[in-house]
């Protein structure tokens, strides 16, 4: 299990340059990878990059940071993440479960939203 999986994952979600983001997605996810959460169900690099771009559009200027939970075994990991203005309280908190392929890249993400912004 890659020690810096969460840091690399968060970096991809924070990358605002489309070309740099596409490169990070290709490095981190397999070509056939899927990403499913309450708001999205996509497959492939283009779909995953589009979900990331969409999240950035919904929360401009906000940043993803690793949460407190990280656990892994075999080729499965689970971790929490936070989203909010840099240095401030998170407006969203999520819990993701990832399955890794043989090559160490992510093959599947199942995401859950534990805290959502209030209107």
From TrEMBL:
GO terms for molecular function: isomerase activity. InterPro entries: NTF2-like_dom_sf, SnoaL-like. Residues 6-109 form the SnoaL-like domain. Keywords: Isomerase. The keyword Isomerase applies. SUPFAM superfamilies: NTF2-like. The keyword Isomerase applies. This is Isomerase.
């Amino acid at each position: 299990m890659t020690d810096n999986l969460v840091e690399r994952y968060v970096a991809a979600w924070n990358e605002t340059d489309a070309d740099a983001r596409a490169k990070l997605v290709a490095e981190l996810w397999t070509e056939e990878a899927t990403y499913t959460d309450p708001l999205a169900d996509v497959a492939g690099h283009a779909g995953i990059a589009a979900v990331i771009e969409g999240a950035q559009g919904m929360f401009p200027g906000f940043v993803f940071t690793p949460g407190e939970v990280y656990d892994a075994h075999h080729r499965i990991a689970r971790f929490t993440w936070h989203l909010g203005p840099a240095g401030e309280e998170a407006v969203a908190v999520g819990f993701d479960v990832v399955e890794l392929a043989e090559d160490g890249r992510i093959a599947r993400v199942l995401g859950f939203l534990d805290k959502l912004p209030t209107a």
